[in-house]
Amino acid sequence: MATPSHHQNPTPSTKKKKTHKNPEANFLYELNSCSKSKDLKAAISLYDSALSNNTRLNQSHFNTLLYLCSTFATDPDSKDLALRYGFRVFDHMMALNIHPNEASITSIARLSAAKGDGDYAFEMVKKLSDYQVSPRLRTYEPALFCFCQKLEAEKAYEVEEDIDKMGLSLEEPQIAALLKLSADTWRGERVYNYLHKLRRSVRWVSEETGKVLEDWFCCKASEIGSDVGSVKEAILRNGGGWHGLGWIGEGKWVVKKGNVESNGRCCCCGEQLDCVDIDDVETEKFALSVAGLALEREVKANFREFQDWLEKNADYEAIVDGANIGLYQQNFAEGGFSVLQLDAVIKEMYTRSGNKWPLVILHNKRVRALLENPSHRKLVEEWMANGVLYTTPHGSNDDWYWLYATVKLRCLLVTNDEMRDHIFELLGSSFFLKWKERHQVRYTFLKGALKLQMPPAYSIVIQESEKGSWHVPIVCESDEESLRSWLCITRPGGCEDEGKTGSTMGTCEIVNGPCCKSSENRNNEKCDDKTTSMTGKRKERSP
Q1: Please, which pLDDT band fits residue 541 given cuts at 50, 70 and 90?
Q2: What pLDDT was estimated at residue 535?
Q3: CB of 476 within 8 A of CB of 482?
Q4: pLDDT interval class at 517 (50, 70, 90)
């Protein structure tokens, strides 16, 4: 019996290995392999071979070589080779009239900084404009860090000015470097300004940045003061947590590391931390932004009518997203709009605010349906009589109404809406998350019982008090905030508890065990005299 013949398909092993036909592509492929494996010597060997073979080089070849050389420029064993070939490759690139891009300049700037030449690194960054290319923050870093390390303050500040002109924002590593430079060169006003830049940029600082701050405050005695009244006004205007008017008080600083209680009380000095809000200017911009977008998307006459009404009824302390609460956990067969849930929230907010009714925003279609229901009519009429309800008109999106009211009146907002949809993306506000943390009240109903999650008692951000003290949160790996360490930076007598303890500077309240340690002087050469180590002592809590 004849057997049918079959065409044998080639197995993977019989397939020809794919190769690049042109030498330029082959060279780039092999260079990228060296880059992935971090093999500088192999890359240099390939480069030398390409030169011998007159291989035509392009920007990608040069950028890969420059990147590898800059990567090894700080490695003690490879530094000389990396620097020698790095500058040779760049000179070759320029000789061929191949324009560098941002990646090329970043690499050559890193090589220059590794050689200690911050001036050339900065000069290279400025040359990017000749090629109509915009630098990135990483492009400036080599020059900035080089000047900071060499204590060339004016040059570092010039780099910072250029970064600002380009519309780029400093991050913690750059701010910390400038802060340390200013501290090392005794520029107290600069230190103060960079501390505020840190406050605006990060919620908490790294251990390394915390160490820079400890060193500065442990060795610095300042005698700059400000009018108490103006300080309080500034803190209120700024939304709490800072005043920005300069150092306050006199004498040496006392630096301790400890924890903050769940109610926001520092266990080292007893000071109450703030729940920080956005400032007056940001609030006004936010309200105008919401109103502007609402007027574009809503019937103008309807929203303007709401704005006018709100101007005349501006004494509410809480806004309630009625639909969000009424429809909470109602996705079951008999579910609908829960009037009882909404009424529970209304009454709870009334009690919490000292018998002031909240404002409930609810669509008029929903209100009509409730009034037509005999079992709900009386309760809804009671809300209306108490001035609790504002009904939004047909075709409107009530999100615009409750958001605008909350921002404009600077009050609380009861909703579980995470405000992540396209409406809130349109706002594009850098301070939106801070605003939410300060104003949003979340809720749950467990077996019909209401539980409100109020805004936190305090904000986990760098804080400056009206007494001149500072509290700086340190990065924490645990999700348990009670375990987070804070730098507590005060002056003798600046805080109430320290004033009571007189000269016993190490005394502090202990909550759940020892929570406060004084920073030891680390033999910083710029200090005139040494600060003795102080440990926290237990103190009885007053009843």
Answers
A1: very low
A2: 29
A3: no
A4: low
Evaluated on CA atoms 236, 239, 244, 248, the torsion sign reads: positive
Alpha-carbon gap, residue 363 to 396, rounded angstroms: 8
Enter the tokens of residue 536: 């926290």
User: Dihedrals φ, ψ of 19, to 5°?
Assistant: -125, 155
Cβ neighbourhood burial of 108 (10 Å; 0-12, 13-18, 19+)? buried
User: Which H or E run includes 540?
Assistant: none
How much of the chain is in helix, strand and coil states, percent to nearest 5?
Answer: 50, 10, 40
- Beta-carbon contacts of 13 under 8 Å, excluding residues fewer than 6 positions away, are none
Place of tokens 């007494």: 467
What angle do helix axes 300-312 and 398-409 make, rounded to 10 degrees? 30
Fold for the domain defined by 280-452? Rossmann fold (3.40.50)
Query: Could you tell me whether strands 318-321 and 359-363 are parallel, antiparallel, or unpaired per DSSP bridges?
Result: parallel
DSSP 170-188: --HHHHHHHHHHHHHTT-H
- Beta bridge partners of residue 98, listed in sequence order: none
For residues 321 and 329, the model is more confident at: 321
pLDDT at 480: 85
pLDDT at 239 over 50: yes
- CA 337/CA 376 separation, integer angstroms: 11
Nearest residue to 171 (alpha-carbon basis) of 197, 146, 152, 204: 197
Per-residue confidence (pLDDT) for residue 176, from 0 to 100: 97
Return the residue matching tokens 């105008």.
Answer: 288
Domain 170-275+458-493: give its CATH code.
Answer: 1.25.40.10
Q: Which residues contact 268 (CB under 8 A, 6 or more apart)?
A: 256, 257, 258, 486, 488, 490, 508, 509, 515, 516, 536
pLDDT of residue 329: 86
pLDDT single digits (tens) 109-159? 999 999 999 999 999 999 999 999 999 999 999 999 999 999 999 999 999
Cα(26)–Cα(45) distance, integer angstroms:
14
Q: Which residue has the tokens 């500058």?
A: 87
- The confidence score (pLDDT) of residue 1 equals 43
Query: Residue 407, SS3?
Result: helix
Taking the C-alpha atoms of residue 327 and residue 342, their distance in angstroms, rounded to an integer, is 9
Q: Residue 303 and residue 298: Cα distance in Å, rounded?
A: 7
Polymer length of the chain: 543
Neighbours of 222 (CB within 10 A): 19
Domain ranges of the chain: 170-275+458-493, 280-452
- Spell 6-22 as b/e; 16+ CB within 10 A means b: eeeeeeeeeeeeeeeee
- The confidence score (pLDDT) of residue 432 equals 83
Both tokens assigned to 452 = 């409100």
What single DSSP character describes residue 128?
A: G
